[in-house]
Amino acid sequence: MKKNEDRRIRKTKKAMSDALASLLLKKPLNNISVREIAELADINRGTFYLHYRDVYDMVEQLQNEIFEKFNEIIDNYEPKSETDSLFPLIVEVFNLLADNSELAKVLISKNGDAIFLDKLKNLLRDKCLVNVKKLLKIKNEDEFQYYYDYIIAGCTGLFGSWLAGGMKETPVEMAGYTEEFIMKGADIFK
Amino acid sequence: MKKNEDRRIRKTKKAMSDALASLLLKKPLNNISVREIAELADINRGTFYLHYRDVYDMVEQLQNEIFEKFNEIIDNYEPKSETDSLFPLIVEVFNLLADNSELAKVLISKNGDAIFLDKLKNLLRDKCLVNVKKLLKIKNEDEFQYYYDYIIAGCTGLFGSWLAGGMKETPVEMAGYTEEFIMKGADIFK
DNA sequence: TCATGCGGGTTTTATAATCAACAAATAAGA
DNA sequence: TCTTATTTGTTGATTATAAAACCCGCATGA
User: Fold this and answer.
1) CB closer than 7 A to strand C: which residues?
2) Hey, are the CB atoms on B11 and A42 less than 8 Å from each other?
3) Contacts of B171 (CB under 8 A, 6+ apart)
């Protein structure tokens, strides 16, 4: 949560983001107008332009913000010991999704933004690989590459169905499932 | 909905009102601080004082606003014919409650403000008596007085349980029930 | 006893958001 | 095609809210 931002900015951006998300549920981005967003967000149309150049700029900025937060979470995670689990990290990821659920739902779920999803996967792949490999004590590197792709796709899929299903489970519960899935499957490498 | 008010004012007041309502669920008015309201509403504390003198003033103003809207609804209702039902009027009343549900819930329900409830009953009594009497074609005036008190208490009770139950039914459905109850019981006067 | 803390009000300065109006661009229909 | 709406950016003046710092009164506890 950005504490350094003016309350007013935080609220207007939230309102606009929610409005955009709810519009994206009904129609594709290319026929969503600034006017609609402003109206639904219950803000003056001019206010939109104080923050974004147009609708595409808005989506791009919002996506970048999410990516930045992902990065931040992952970068700030350092396991205490060699055998430390990924659990705390995964919990934070689910919390992040929860904080941005309206938008994340439409970006990740079906009819979502394929590019966004791909960037997300790449991010997870690049950033988490080291930790997972260390944790699992990998011997067979080649086969593991595939398993790692499998993990990444599985996780993002899990994100999507959790969000689409209305987030019935808590982030902690979901993190538990996720870690379990990852570790169980990794038994083949032992 | 007050269209003449600045968006910002509308939103701030809504936030403060919701905050107050949610605090009233947990504790009595006399130990709810301005600080708490501002914090929960996510507004600057100083902003509170731009609108209200203190917490009591706030409650009073909010109650008055609700009463004014009640009055407005009732005053603007004129039956087309002698036999016209109260249905449209009742629907509007339930809509009004829905629009102010957070606050109305705590004011009307148990642990609510007894004075508020009493004022509400008196308002309904005074304003609706004419219409109901006309509609029911009353002969026995004396006994009807009691029946009318009975109706009023019944209606406000219905308001309370609908709000407390989370407003599962639509205003139109509730208005249907309400009118049915009133008319059925009134058969004894025919 | 004094200190420390907390809530109540108030003030000042800075800035975000409002509203209303506008001309240019774009879409839509006859 | 020409005409008519609709959306788009942008502007200027105004207002509401934010933030941070006050002082005050009161309580609580060392």
Assistant:
1) A 6, 8-9, 11-12, 42-47, 50-51; B 6-8, 33-35, 45-46, 49, 53-55
2) yes
3) B91, B94, B95, B97, B98
B143 within 8 A of B189, measured Cβ to Cβ: yes
CB crowding A87-108: b at 16 or more within 10 Å, else e: eebbbbbbbbbeebbbbbbbbb
Average pLDDT over residues A160-174: 95
CB A139 within 8 A of CB A59: no
Answer for the pair B62, B29: CB distance below 8 angstroms, yes or no.
no
Enter the pTM of the model.
Answer: 0.82
**Which pLDDT value is given to residue A83?**
59
Considering just the CA atoms, what is the radius of gyration of chain A in Å? 18
pLDDT in tens, A21-69: 999 988 888 889 999 999 999 999 999 999 999 999 999 999 999 999 9
Between vectors from CA A84 to CA A82 and to CA A86, what angle results, nearest 5°? 125
Asked if residue B29 has pLDDT above 90, the reply is no
**Does residue A56 lie within 7 Å of nucleic acid chain D, judged by its CB?**
no
Coil, helix or strand at residue B105: helix
Neighbouring residues of A157: CB distance < 8 A, sequence distance ≥ 6: none
First to last CA, chain A: 40
Cα–Cα distance measured from residue B134 to residue B82, given in angstroms and rounded to the nearest whole number? 7
Interface of A with B (CB under 8 A): 7, 11, 42-44
Contact in structure between B74 and B51 (CB atoms under 8 Å)? no
The CA distance from A182 to B170, in Å, is 46
Q: What is the pLDDT of residue A3?
A: 54
Q: Measured in angstroms, what separates residue B3's CA from nucleotide C25's C1'?
A: 31
For the cut 60, the answer to whether the pLDDT of residue B82 exceeds it is no
Q: What are the C-alpha distances in Å from A177 to residues A4, A92, A99, B163?
A: 34, 14, 20, 38
pLDDT tens figures, B103-137: 999 888 766 788 889 889 988 888 888 777 777 77
